[in-house]
Amino acid sequence: MSNSNCQCGGCGCSVCQPANVIYQRPCTDPGVINVGANLLVSDSNFCNRRLAPSEGFVVINLVPGGYQVSSTTEPNVNLSTFAVASGAAIGNILVRNTDGIIRTLAPAAVANLILMTNAAGQFVLSALPPFSVPDPLSVTTLNATSATFGSLTVTGPTAKFTGLVTGTIASTVGLDASGNLVLGTPAATGVQTAMFYESASSPGATTPNQTITAGSMLVIGNQLYDSGASLLSVVNTQKLKVNVAGKYTIEFCCQVGYTGGGTGTPALNLVINGITVNTGNARGGITSTTDRTAFIFGVDARDLAINDTVELQLSSTAGGAGNRVHVYEARLVAQKFQ
């Protein structure tokens, strides 16, 4: 073969020299076939060889000795990247069909399909299946930017909130008697106050308790102030009724005076549900002709239930027989703090 520099025999090919002219001989069209039995490649000495047939891809990889042509079922090819924005269409993807042939996947024109597996271990495109959340759902740690709960029970040692915005309080959150977290208004859940007096205004234009006798209930049925929670209401001129259960402090006071030589030991009793629970700062016996007026004051703290009654009573020890004891400025302030 005068136009070739390679000599091939039964023992193989010699080194082809010079390598850059080995294929510079005249070429003719070898013809076309649809299926080939072998792939002709050159080895590192530019000698022609048949690439051993095997199933897979023919790839060209860079190895330490240079580029290498090989057949593999696990191609490792350094492809270029394709950047895509969120929500942008990316065309088709390659998949291996159930018949073993690699094809482009052309999904149906249906929104929100996802790729998932079926019971046969195959990939399928399908809508997101319905799911349910365990009820109750137990979570050790929950971090959420935005969450909506129909019912939430917190049993951990602490409940911590950070990053809250500032503003005017329009509602409050707290626990009811059953331990449920409830939403309330400051008027109903904050510290609230109601005040009652013997007259319709303070200072009073009248003195309804001036002629009261020892042991009688005082007139205090005029509500002068309520912070908005309607803590107590008036049953009659001498009795109040609790509308909102809770923990209360109650302050009560009056002035007791004696005339015409009247004497006694004045005390102002706080009466809850018909029982005297506090007698205030009861004064010792007033007998002198100069000390005839006493300011009586008392304060009490207790749990009150709905429909509990509250009254003030001039003690039976006030004396002053013959209309010689007089009460002025009878006042009661109830403050609910919890």
Structure characterization notes:
The protein has 338 residues and is mostly beta strands. Among the domains are: 8-26 and 37-72, no CATH class; 192-336, Jelly Rolls (Sandwich), CATH 2.60.120.40. It is 1% helix and 37% strand. It has one helix spanning 186-189, and strands spanning 8-9, 12-13, 39-42, 48-51, 57-63, 66-72, 93-96, 102-105, 113-117, 123-127, 172-175, 181-184, 192-197, 222-226, 232-236, 239-242, 246-258, 268-272, 275-278, 293-304, 309-314, 325-336. The strands form 8 sheets. Strands 14-13-22-17-20 form a 5-stranded antiparallel β-sheet. A 5-stranded antiparallel β-sheet has the order 15-16-21-18-19, with no helix packed on it. The protein is rod-shaped.
